[in-house]
Amino acid sequence: MSVATITPDATTVDWEAMKADLAPVAIIDETVLVKKRSRDFFWYSPVLNAQLKKSFGDLVAQPTTKEELVQCLAVAFRHNAPIVLRGGGTGNYGQSVPLHGGLIIETLGMKKILEIGPDYVRVEAGALMADINAALKEHGREMTMFPSTQDIATIGGFIAGGSAGIGSVANGPLREPGNIREIRALSVEETPVEHIFQNDDVLRIHHAWGLNGVITEVTLRTVPTRDWISCMATFDSYAVAYRAGFALANRTDIDRKLVSVVDARIAAYFPRLDNHVPKGRDLMVSLVPREQVEAYKELIAAHGGQVALTMDDAERTAAGIPHVFEFGWNHTTLQVLKSDRSATYQQYGVNDPSNAEGVAALHAKLGERAWMHHEFSRYEGAVTASDLPIIWTQDEAELRAVDEMYRTNGCTVYDAHTYQVEGGGMKADYRHLAVKKRMDPKGLLNPGKSRSWADVSHLDADEIEALAE
Question: What CATH class does 228-413 carry?
Fold first, then answer.
């Protein structure tokens, strides 16, 4: 029997009846606590902060088992309640912010590590990535990648809303074939059903922001763990630091796990590096296996840089220095925002990462408007580069002017100032939306986060999928 798509509206829900139907699942209905769980790191963006700061859910459910999660979804379906899934709330785009109110389902209680195989790990969606890596280390393995927020971020949230992180320069992004082995996700129906997505089909759920299914379990590829050494090197100019970073990212004899290049002006916001890293010099942050540190030092010297720091975890902890990846990826932005909320950031793809001269020219043109910060990754065997600059404005028009400067310089804008999944440089993914129609026939999951759903929700799933052809 077909189910009609509705316009989810939390104001029509009988919340007292919902609470009774959710029992014995733990709930939070205290307004202050519900509001706290209605936020993520969207405040990085002045645009999103203005749009989302008054968006709150109505009730939080905290299932600890798959059976309780099924109950939450069935109850929400029966009451036509909007649903938003939430892990650690570390997203930057409002992925877990309820635009239309409704039920927030917090997955932190579903955190079991279910199986560790010879080259894979199977976990519940609410497992913290730091806990997964700690468990894997006992077996001589580690995750292929994780975000800089691994201590508080869940694997389900990372799969639903993330794409790359620490380790992507060695193992590619999450979408690289084989990195995600399997995703299990529940439908939102009268009787929710768990569906299994494997091989290429995992991309039908990955990076859909929880729009088209409720992730319950994930199976990921793992790699051998290494004795990683935290490395930092400094350079006389950003162009030279970038060239060194690109060279390190391309080295096949150095198994680097992280290559971040950071403008000296950003590095000045890293007080915990005082007395360890010289000030006023552009910075490269890396993770390198112990047995390859000498080769790393030779590369730095060949590019005219100076090695400032090489420490193992014990030495780093004794020196009071955080994980070096907390100076890369979006933790770089956070380090600045801790001191000055007048800044923001953006995400750009460098279309020719080998063009250090082009990077240098744009760096000079930007001046004080934006301070560069590049992350190197690898996709289909080729090195890629992303710029996550600090931009000194709270005005959207000025932000868009910087976007245009990057476009003119041959970069792609992956907009970090939108709460819709298609807004960050992505086109409508009709494969995602076809799965949504099958898995979420009423359209209750994360309403408002897809700008294309309203255009196709009246179609059946096969008709939506045909639009992708």
Answer: alpha beta
